[in-house]
Design goal:
This protein is of the alpha+beta class. The chain has 6 helices and 10 strands; from the N terminus they run E-E-H-H-E-H-E-E-E-H-H-E-E-E-H-E. The chain has helices at 45-64, 68-82, 86-92, 115-131, 138-145, 188-200, and strands spanning 6-13, 42-43, 83-84, 102-103, 106-108, 111-112, 146-155, 158-170, 175-182, 215-222. A 4-stranded antiparallel sheet has the order 5-9-1-10.
Length: 226
């Protein structure tokens, strides 16, 4: 049996971030935070992978500016880790005649709060249920992890009519973890490049272009051959 490396990505929020669910919450916010059924905030695995891949393409452009050979090797790492489609090839490696799509071997889990933290609060809620005396509700849990912010939509320099919207932001200083696994043994250089991608990530969330979601990210892997 092949012993494949596994690990986790740690992301600490240095500022408030938007983990939008795309849903409204009646009489509370127009855009609520993405939470599981117990009320814990999380960031979807597909969204995390997409933002890491976007960061990888940003790093690729940096390599292209001074070392084409290194850039090409980095592109191969992106392909093996994330997969590529024909459109991405034409955009990020102009002149390439390859147009096929490929699947990456890396698999990511959702960004979630530490398991020990979730277990602590779930036990508290379960004890409350047994005692029929509730000190902590799902609503309280969501409120403890988020702020409610508002904004006004502006069009042509003026506020749009009835344009005040409210939304959840996830509180800064919270730390989230996502599992990392592979379907086949990755190349050593791919793991090195993955570490570069993760550590260079500066923002995350739906509002990354509006100044939200500044982060500090780290990669931890085990089962890696020296």
């Amino acid at each position: 049996m092949i012993n494949l490396p596994t690990g986790k990505i740690e992301i600490r929020l240095l500022s408030e971030a938007i983990f939008a669910s795309g849903e409204k919450e009646s009489h509370l916010v127009h855009s609520r935070a993405l939470t599981d059924r117990d009320g814990f905030v999380y960031f979807h695995a597909k969204s995390l992978k997409g933002q890491l891949k976007r960061q990888a393409f940003w790093l690729l452009e940096q390599y292209r500016s001074f070392d084409l050979e290194k850039a090409k090797a980095f592109l191969h790492s992106i392909e093996r880790l994330f997969g590529l489609n024909g459109n991405e090839r034409s955009i990020h490696w102009p002149g390439s005649e390859e147009r096929y799509s490929s699947q990456g071997t890396m698999r990511l889990g959702a960004l979630e709060l530490p398991a020990a933290v979730k277990s602590y609060f779930l036990k508290m809620m379960k004890d409350d249920e047994a005692d029929e005396y509730y000190t902590l509700s799902t609503h309280d849990l969501i409120a403890a992890q988020t702020h409610i912010r508002s904004r006004i939509e502006v069009k042509n320099g003026t506020a749009k009519d009835k344009s005040l919207t409210t939304y959840h932001t996830v509180r800064e200083d919270l730390v989230f973890y996502a599992t990392v696994s592979f379907e086949s043994r990755p190349h050593a250089e791919d793991l090195e490049n993955l570490n570069r991608i993760v550590c260079s990530l500066e923002r995350i969330g739906a509002g990354i272009h509006r100044g939200h979601g500044e982060v500090e990210a780290r990669l931890f892997l085990s089962g890696v051959e020296e």
